[in-house]
Specification:
Chains A, B: Pathway: Cofactor biosynthesis; riboflavin biosynthesis; 5-amino-6-(D-ribitylamino)uracil from GTP: step 2/4; Cofactor biosynthesis; riboflavin biosynthesis; 5-amino-6-(D-ribitylamino)uracil from GTP: step 3/4. The structure is a homodimer of 349-residue chains. Chain A is α/β, with parallel strands linked by helices. The first copy, chain A, is built from ten helices and 18 strands. Chain A has an eight-stranded mixed beta sheet with strand order 10-9-8-13-6-14-18-17. In chain A, strands 2-1-3-4-5 form a five-stranded mixed beta sheet, sandwiched between helices.
């Protein structure tokens, strides 16, 4: 039977999703979760998972009302956990509080856990409804969901290019292709990722900081460099400053090799095993081409500057496609202006 | 003193502009012109210039009320003509009709005529207001205005490309990069131009029809082929069918040569001299590159398909730009989805 939801229920879940988002810089390996408790049509408590290792969203909400929620309805963006981890089981805390009804946006994506929290709640006689704003709740935790299902993080590839698809001049010159507003947007994008991957070429040529520089935002994504040829030796490079952690993956320190080169898929699994849910790929044409070739990219964020750079400039990806039948198909998810740049969000079809 | 206009006046001019647009397939070398006559706050007549050589918009409106418009206000999108041409002077007809007030969106762009119609009207004691919705009225006749001022048509360059800025595979394969909906949009675009320019390479490789194929639309743009090397000899090519006129420009039949090659700027002046207001450039990377290099393109219409074609494919323009300081700057005028394609309208900065 199709579960239906009222306008009121949808409004409350929307609030829970907005709350969840507030945890975006803190939850790290964990999912973002928001929770709203409603009694007699009034919100009596709100909470979200704020920080890795700290209380879950449901507990933060229940605490506000001293764990007393007799007859209330609890809205939560992700299925409450059934197991005691770093904190007590949320399902148990909900049961103990006297909540009468629980509305859940989506089940736990971990196939080993999926549905167990719901079983606990139902067994305790609580009415449970599932699936309200499921899509929005999934987008919230794209990375966490993918990692739970595949052990690999969600890979978002950021590209700054001209209208004719170029990222640098033949000389290598590439600074300030995009506008100041677009570059600020990239800073926000970085802040929402746990790691940023690039290749040794970018590090050697551009010596980037690869950090988040946004007032009031404390996000320090891991800087990951793919260094297949052991080229990163100069410790005065900006990536070795103390602003954020850095991981250089080279044949010497890495077991993830395939035919003498770094096995990119394995690199991602390694990052997934470290609890990294989402990665921003900010790389040159070679690494982007290699990642696309083995289908490792989930989403592209393209900043397109209103310029033409000409036929001698370098394209966004090094990847030979001989025949139109092998073209790579994308789905355009969003197109908007960011200053005078066009920002395109697209997923691989 | 700044002329101000009321909401009512703006509404009437908006109607006149919409009327003008109805002439888009018929006016050819002439401007599109719409006219509305208002008396006691009611529209008593409407007209537009329908067809080259036929009555102007003002005359078509006046005819409806037997040229009797005593005390009325006449709205017209372009300054009424002062000279007797193929038809009687519109300014004189307006004066004779008894109109009390004339509101004009913009003056005649021809510097030799500009303002003369207004002088006639004012001399006859008619109140004249100028500049209402001038921008909209200018966009209506971009091509006519440019030709009046420079003797050259307005050049709109249409490009169909992948997200990575490619228009064909290295093999030359290029069919169906864009979607069916985008291709229908191109048909509408073609219909709004008096000529379509391409290069001999496109003709030889793709053997295109270069015609408008739209139900109910009778528009037959002149097919112009730039054939610098006298390569178009096969008369069984589609461009030689009788569906539309064709003009092959080669060193044999053309005086517009510079250092042995066709002088593109001169080609455009030749087309302007033939009364062509607007040209759609649908060409390969070479001709587009050559046109950009000497700054001949006014506007780009880019259909971007949600695909990646890879680094071996051909870019949209052959033009070497060595240094970022020489990059070509554009202004994005409009971005919208056409089916699953992104349509970008941009002008040269």
């Amino acid at each position: 039977m199709l579960t239906t939801f009222s306008k009121n229920e949808t409004q409350n879940m929307t609030i829970a999703i907005k709350l969840a988002l507030q945890g975006r810089y803190g939850v790290k390996s964990n999912p973002m979760v928001g929770c709203v408790i409603v009694k007699h049509s009034k919100i009596i408590a709100k909470g979200y998972h704020e920080s890795f290792g700290q209380a879950h969203g449901e507990i933060n909400a229940l605490q506000q009302i001293n764990y007393k929620a007799h007859g209330a309805t609890l809205y939560v963006t992700l299925e409450p956990c059934s197991h005691q981890g770093k904190t007590p089981s949320c399902a148990q805390a909900i049961i103990n509080s006297g909540v009468k009804k629980v509305i859940i946006a989506m089940l736990d994506p971990n196939p080993l856990v999926n549905g167990k929290g719901v079983v606990m709640l139902k067994y305790a006689g609580i009415e449970v409804k599932i699936g309200l704003l499921k899509n929005d709740a999934s987008i919230l935790n794209q990375g966490f969901i993918k990692r739970m299902q595949t052990n690999q993080p969600f890979i978002r590839c950021k590209v700054a290019m001209s209208i004719d698809g170029k990222t640098s001049m033949s000389s290598g010159e590439s600074k300030w292709i995009t506008s100041k507003v677009a570059r600020l947007d990239v800073q926000k994008l970085r802040a929402n990722h746990q790691a940023i991957i690039t290749g040794s070429g970018t590090i050697i040529n551009d010596n980037p900081l690869m950090t988040v520089r946004l007032d009031g935002v404390n996000s320090k994504p891991l800087r990951v460099v793919i260094d297949s040829k052991n080229q990163i030796t100069d410790t005065s490079l900006n990536i070795f400053n103390t602003d954020a952690p850095t991981l250089i993956l080279n044949p010497d320190n890495t077991k993830v090799l395939a035919s003498g080169k770094l096995d990119l898929s394995n690199v991602l699994t390694q990052l997934g095993n470290q609890g990294i849910n989402n990665v921003l790929l900010e790389a040159g044409p070679k690494l982007i081409g290699a990642m696309i070739k083995i289908n490792l990219i989930d989403e592209f964020i393209i900043y397109m500057a209103p310029i033409l750079m000409g036929s001698d400039a370098n394209s966004i990806l090094n990847l030979v496609i001989k025949d139109m039948s092998y073209k790579i198909k994308l789905d355009i998810v969003d197109v908007r202006m960011v200053g005078d740049n066009i920002k395109i969000t697209a997923t691989l079809k």
